[in-house]
Design a protein that fits this description.
337 residues, alpha/beta, Quinone Oxidoreductase, Chain A, domain 1, Rossmann fold, disordered N terminus, binds zinc ion
Length: 337
């Protein structure tokens, strides 16, 4: 009965144009601003969602710092959202890919992640740093899982885009992760479950993170300046640090691949051709397709992926972002409105 009353409240609030709390980006370099905003109204094909948890992503830091541009501020961030539909209460996840045109050459070739008119949640469309949001139903994922909303949220970007990056490593057996944050926490569990080996590279001297990488099942953990005990088949760089590209190239065997997993990276220093020679390759991973999402969200429970989270109230979004910037937690920060 409580649920039914809840639903009626939602409807009433929506119909009467009630307001919600949100953390709003106004300009580059400034903290997000707590604001009261009208609850958005779902248009055709959209869902009105009550946000239950929204994980913080490094991309949000790049947006604040102006390294990735927000075309039309003000904007509500947040693209790892676990929410329920209003009024019928279905649990859904909202990822970074918020809308695609379906007709450009990339969409027609099955590369909707590269759609030339793509719109991204929490960047081009208001996201989940709020009590409510609207989302295109076609880009939401059903979330039947048993894990809590807070624990599920980091799967929607850290997990999902990490999984796309992992796909680019092909059949690699020995896989290096440079930067052991939220994505590497999740992927280490997937890679182990698949019977492959993880080599974890952290900032020099970060023994805490190296320890937690070993606890999660990395066969080796060390400094990004070190070479692994054996040459790697592939490496994924999650840290937005250009000098890691030549470091990873030195760690992979001939024919190996280095995948850059972030949306932004500092400049890559020049390096001798011999570390690329031998058919090594360097490539980036961009965004996600809905197929990536469905595949990963089905696999995560089978691999028994457990996310490590630190929760923050919505109003503490700026603290969560600064804690991420300074590496003050393991795993993911999750906002709970
Ligand atoms: Zn993200
Ligand atoms: Zn398109």
């Amino acid at each position: 009965m409580v649920a039914a009353v809840q639903v009626r409240n939602d409807l009433w609030m929506t119909a009467s144009g009630a307001s919600m709390r949100a953390m709003v980006f106004e300009r580059v370099g400034a903290p997000l601003v707590p604001m009261t905003r009208p609850i958005p109204v779902a248009g055709p094909g959209q869902l009105l969602l009550r946000v239950h948890a929204c994980a913080v992503c490094r991309t949000d830091l790049h947006l604040i710092d102006g390294e990735v541009e927000i075309a039309e501020p003000p904007r509500i961030f947040g693209h790892q959202v676990v929410a329920s539909t209003v009024p019928d209460g279905r649990r859904v996840g909202v990822p970074w890919l918020g809308w695609t045109c379906g007709e450009c050459y990339q969409c027609l070739a099955g590369r909707e992640n590269l759609c030339v008119r793509a719109r991204f949640t929490g960047c081009d469309i208001d996201g989940g740093y709020a009590e409510y949001m609207v989302a295109d139903e076609r880009f939401c994922f059903a979330l039947p899982g048993e894990q809590s909303d807070e624990q599920t949220a980091p799967l929607l970007c850290a997990g999902l885009i990490g999984y796309r990056a992992l796909g680019m490593c092909g059949e690699a057996q020995r896989i290096g992760f440079y930067g052991f944050g939220a994505a590497a926490h999740i992927l280490t569990q997937v890679v182990r479950w698949q019977g492959r080996e993880v080599y974890a590279f952290t900032r020099p001297g970060d023994e805490t993170t190296q320890g937690s990488a070993r606890e999660l099942g990395a066969v080796w953990a060390g400094s990004s300046e070190d070479l692994p005990p054996q040459a790697l088949d592939a490496a994924i760089i999650f840290a937005p640090v250009g000098p890691l590209v030549p470091a990873a190239l030195r760690a992979v065997r001939p024919g190996g691949v280095v995948v850059c997993g972030g949306i932004h990276m500092s400049d890559i220093p020049s390096f001798p051709y011999e570390i690329l020679w031998g058919e090594r390759s360097v490539r980036s991973v961009a965004n996600l397709t809905r197929a990536d999402g469905s595949e990963f969200l089905a696999l995560a429970p089978r691999a028994d992926v457990q996310t490590q989270i630190s929760t923050y109230p919505l109003e503490a979004a700026n603290e969560a972002l600064e804690d991420l910037r300074h590496g003050r937690f393991e795993g993911s920060a999750v906002l709970v409105p």
